[in-house]
Design brief:
Structural class: mainly beta
Distance between the termini: 49 Å
Shape: flat
Radius of gyration: 19 Å
Length: 108
């Protein structure tokens, strides 16, 4: 039986901890965990992984989301701002795209 609030840790075949985010998606009638989903962040794919009960490795730079009336700010290794309106009509997002395109030259 796996507790509903069980945390998970992920390691590659070499035993190196890998960042993983887990969430519960189904429970048994007794409240224990039936199914869970996991997303991993690995700089390069490993030949295999082992998921086990335990505390997940914390991100060196966690991402923080701040909700504002008209947009969201995401702060972490990169900074992102998202409008609550359609991305095609969002002047703030269009301005960010233009700045990135002018710096990068192209998206190719």
């Amino acid at each position: 039986m796996v507790a509903a609030d069980q945390e998970f840790a992920l390691v590659d075949r070499g035993g190196t901890a890998v960042l993983v985010q887990s969430w519960s998606i189904a429970f048994w009638p007794d409240g224990s965990l039936k199914r869970s989903a996991h997303a991993l962040a690995a700089p390069t794919p490993a030949e295999g992984y082992t998921l086990k009960a335990g505390t997940a490795t914390a991100a060196v730079t966690p991402v923080t989301i701040t909700e504002h009336e008209d947009h969201l700010d995401a702060e972490g290794p990169n900074r992102c701002q998202s409008c609550s309106c359609s991305t095609d009509r969002c002047p703030r997002l269009q301005a960010v795209r233009k700045r990135r395109l002018s710096k990068a030259g192209s998206l190719a």
